[in-house]
Design brief:
mainly beta
């Protein structure tokens, strides 16, 4: 399943060690999207995420972020 995010989506990001063990994780907002299509056979998408934990931007592959659905207040 391909994950697709939009700008301003609330996401949980994950940073990994080389052996894919989680090194750090947190919440953030997608602020930029870059799509590459170097050949006709494949393409990939990276997302720039503003990390609330550090206040910095970092690029993530779609497999390293999950969408968070914010709670909806009922009136």
């Amino acid at each position: 399943m391909v994950k697709i995010f939009k700008k301003a989506d609330l996401v949980r990001w994950f940073e990994y060690y080389e052996d894919r063990i989680v090194r750090d994780a947190g919440l953030g907002i997608v602020v930029d999207i870059k799509r590459w299509t170097p050949g006709a056979d494949y393409e990939w998408t990276n997302y720039s995420v503003y990390k609330f934990k550090t206040g910095r931007l970092a690029w993530f592959d779609a497999r390293d972020i999950d969408q968070i659905n914010p709670p909806v207040c009922e009136s």
